[in-house]
Structure formats: structure tokens, C-alpha cells
Design brief:
12 helices; single chain; disordered N terminus; alpha+beta
């Protein structure tokens, strides 16, 4: 007698229950608060101490020079001269295009006054200087890298780039993918109304960058370049906080990159980070609704007839 053994098929995995709007709002708020908590922990680490020692070596540029820098290299973060970079253990790569800014010095001159007497005076001069962004340099062998961010390597993009590209296109923006030299990840170009994302990024990091740049657009950060230059630390803190929270709602963790990025731009000021909650969370929910239209809160979006 022959017996037949039936093969049991594995049970189909049940879909995760959908979270309510209120549950998602609570999760978003908790994710935003976790940024401050992680920044606080980073602030007490040797890694932060090393980063501060590195950051303190850089000159604070005038608003006009910041505008010049951003006009030539929109995502520049730290700039210095060729020899300054060498002194910091980094070498400017061959062929990199310099960013031009105005320097300042004075020259002693001798002139005759109205009485015919010779007097010495100092005349201000504004020579053109060449500087380079850190992304245009490489670490010299044996030097220590003070970076507090790590690139994301995940292979899943979660459909974010396509979804946000379609949304921005409807708003009159274009999204381009380019081979950004020097380690740049992406930037927003308000004059051309375009967002540029680096082709070198992993799908996960490209998605995070896309959220970050979309946040800049939605929060009005790119409407006025002078305003952005003056408040860049706050605006970068807000955009990266949005990226971190939205990614958390979607299901991936960007803390390896986002926490250090936020800490650097916010100068590890946890109260400043917490103070952005209202604007950050409003933008988070706006982007989350684009990524998942079923999550739109009808009580908040309905209008009176």
C-alpha cells in the first residue's frame, strides 16, 4: 500500500496592520525627539570632541562670501585654502575647480594731508582668494578623519525617489540625477527649480537625500538664498530632521548619517533641535501623505462646502 505525504505550504505572512493617523503622528514625534537624545549622547563622546577640534580650525566667512560660496557650490559645508587643507591632513584633488571669494587685508600707504605733511594710513583691500570645499579633498595617508557621518548603504529605495520626483514635477520642479564630483550628495537649485541627486549614492541614501531636498523646497528654505545663507544651520537641521523622521515612518534608519549631520549644523544644541518640532513635523506629515496617500488625515484636509 502506497501512502502519499502531503506537503504543507508555508502560511502566507499576514500584512502588518495599518497604523492610525494618530499613531503615526505619535511615532513621528517620538522619532524627532530621538534626534535630540542621540545628539546629546554624541555631544559627550570622543568623536564629537575630535570633530570640534577640526571644526574650530575654519574661518567664519561674511554673509557676502557665504553667498558667493553657495552660488558656486550649493552644498559646500567647510571651505579653506589649498595649504590650509594640507595643514589639516587633507589634499585638494588634482583638477578641482576653486571657489572664488573676497579676502581682506590692509596696506600701509603714505599720503600728503591738506597741509602738505606726509601721513601714514591703512587702506583696505579685498583680494580674490581661492578656496575649496572639504568634498574636493582626500584624506592624506595617516591622517585622522574627524567625520561624524556615515553613508547609508541599503539597497532598498522604498519607491521614495520616484514618488517625490512626481510630486515635485507637479509643483513645477524637475529632478535630475548627476555624477556629482567630490562626494556631493545632492542640492536644490531655486533659480532652475530643480533638485539634483548624486548617482553615486546607494538607493537608501538617495532616498534620504531626496526627502532632505524636498523638505528644503516645502519649507521655503530655497526661496531666498540670502536668508538661507544667514540661517543655514537651522535650515539644514530642519531638512535633515525631516529626512530622518520620514525614513523612520517608512521603515529605515538613517541615524548613522542624520544624527551627526544635525549635530554639526545645530552645533549640538538639543534645544534648537527640539524647537524645530512644529515645522519639522508639519513637513514630515506633508511628505508622508505624498508617499502614502491613504495616510491623509481627512479631518485636517477637508474644506467647507
Amino acid at each position: 500500500m502506497t501512502t502519499t505525504t502531503k506537503t504543507r505550504r508555508p502560511a502566507k505572512k499576514a500584512a502588518a496592520p495599518r497604523r492610525s493617523i494618530e499613531e503615526k503622528k505619535a511615532q513621528a514625534a517620538a522619532l524627532h525627539e530621538s534626534i535630540a537624545t542621540q545628539v546629546e549622547a554624541l555631544r559627550d563622546s570622543d568623536r564629537w570632541t575630535a570633530f570640534l577640534a577640526f571644526a574650530s580650525a575654519f574661518h567664519a566667512y561674511s554673509l557676502n562670501n557665504v553667498l558667493l560660496i553657495l552660488g558656486q557650490r550649493p552644498d559646500a559645508s567647510r571651505v579653506a585654502g589649498f595649504r590650509k587643507w594640507q595643514g589639516l591632513g587633507r589634499q585638494v584633488r588634482k583638477g578641482e575647480k576653486a571657489v572664488r571669494i573676497f579676502g581682506y587685508n590692509t596696506k600701509k600707504v603714505t599720503e600728503e594731508d591738506e597741509n602738505g605733511d606726509e601721513v601714514e594710513k591703512r587702506v583696505a583691500r579685498f583680494p580674490i582668494l581661492s578656496v575649496f570645499d572639504i568634498a574636493q579633498t582626500d584624506l592624506v595617508d595617516g591622517a585622522t578623519d574627524p567625520s561624524i557621518v556615515e553613508d547609508l548603504t541599503g539597497a532598498d529605495g522604498y519607491g521614495i525617489v520616484d514618488a517625490l520626483s512626481a510630486y515635485l514635477a507637479a509643483e513645477g520642479w524637475t529632478v535630475e540625477h548627476q555624477d556629482l564630483s567630490g562626494g556631493r550628495n545632492g542640492y536644490s537649485d531655486p533659480e532652475g527649480r530643480r533638485v539634483v541627486i548624486g548617482t553615486h549614492l546607494s538607493p537608501e541614501h538617495a532616498s534620504k537625500t531626496m526627502i532632505h531636498e524636498t523638505a528644503h523646497v516645502l519649507m521655503g528654505h530655497v526661496d531666498d538664498l540670502a536668508e538661507y545663507a544667514e540661517h543655514r544651520g537651522l535650515m539644514e537641521t530642519e531638512a535633515e530632521s525631516v529626512a530622518y523622521v520620514v525614513a523612520g515612518l517608512v521603515g529605515f534608519d538613517t541615524s548613522a548619517y542624520s544624527v551627526g549631520y544635525v549635530a554639526g549644523w545645530a552645533d549640538a544644541d538639543v534645544e534648537l533641535i527640539r524647537g524645530t518640532a512644529t515645522r519639522v513635523l508639519a513637513t514630515v506629515h506633508q511628505i508622508a501623505a505624498v508617499l502614502d496617500p491613504d495616510d491623509v488625515d481627512t479631518d485636517e484636509t477637508e474644506t467647507a462646502n
